[in-house]
Amino acid sequence: MTDTFRVFLVDDHAVFRSGVRTELGRETDIEVVGEAGGVADAIAGIESTKPDVVLLDVHMPDGGGVAVLSRISAGPVCLALSVSDAAEDVIAVIRAGARGYVTKTISGSELADGVRRVAGGDAVFSPRLAGFVLDSFTGKSNAPEPPLDPELDSLTPRELEVLRLLARGYTYREIAEDLFISVKTVETHASNVLRKTQQSNRNALTRWAHNRRID
Q: Which CATH number fits domain 5-137: 3.40.190.10, 2.50.20.10, 3.10.20.30, 3.40.50.2300?
């Protein structure tokens, strides 16, 4: 390992990426060499910059952190950095190949330490999240897999992307720009999502999504 730890940041919130970049920029031995807000850009950026560590959001359009983990070649180690502390999210990304999982409540200095540790070969978790992983791999977890949810499972991948962005408060126009589709197509997807989830309006749909930790 070199004296400087090269980090690539993946998160679909630009403001959050900026904050992490600022925090890590205070560390003399950590360099953020690139960032991306989506799966495709993340894969391309990671392949071109060849970082030591990837800080990876769990919930993003196009499959999120698991999709990135499944498509990058061997090389960097990945540390999941998410707002979610749900057992199913932790277990899913660890099974996909992440070396650790921390939540976005972590301090800048703690995150920097996590980067150094995973780069050196350690697994990094908070005690509670580590318990999820241990329980899962020893067969003791009460929730090793996400529970069955017929309404959620009925959504197409594109409808799920639209749902996530709706739950984050995006307007139809913002969703259209983010997904490179027309506003009319977004409206059609949103209508399908409302029908399939049996929700009456956007506010109800947002509550429904948040209850399922879809964000």
A: 3.40.50.2300
Percent of the chain with pLDDT over 70: 88
pLDDT tens string 177-209: 888 889 999 999 999 899 888 888 888 888 888
Surface-to-core class of residue 201, CB atoms within 10 Å of its CB (0-12 exposed, 13-18 middle, 19+ buried): exposed
* Residue 192 tokens, joined: 């399908």
- According to CATH, the topology of domain 150-211 is Arc Repressor Mutant, subunit A (1.10.10)
Average pLDDT rounded to a whole number, residues 134-142: 55
DSSP string for the chain = --SSEEEEEE-S-HHHHHHHHHHHHT-TTEEEEEEESSHHHHHHHHHHH--SEEEE-S--GGGHHHHHHHHSPSSSEEEEEES---HHHHHHHHHHT-SEEEETT--HHHHHHHHHHHHTT--EE-HHHHHHHHHHHTT--S-SSPPP-HHHHTS-HHHHHHHHHHHTT--HHHHHHHHT--HHHHHHHHHHHHHHHT-SSHHHHHHHHHHTT--
Alpha-carbon torsion 54, 55, 57, 60, what sign? negative
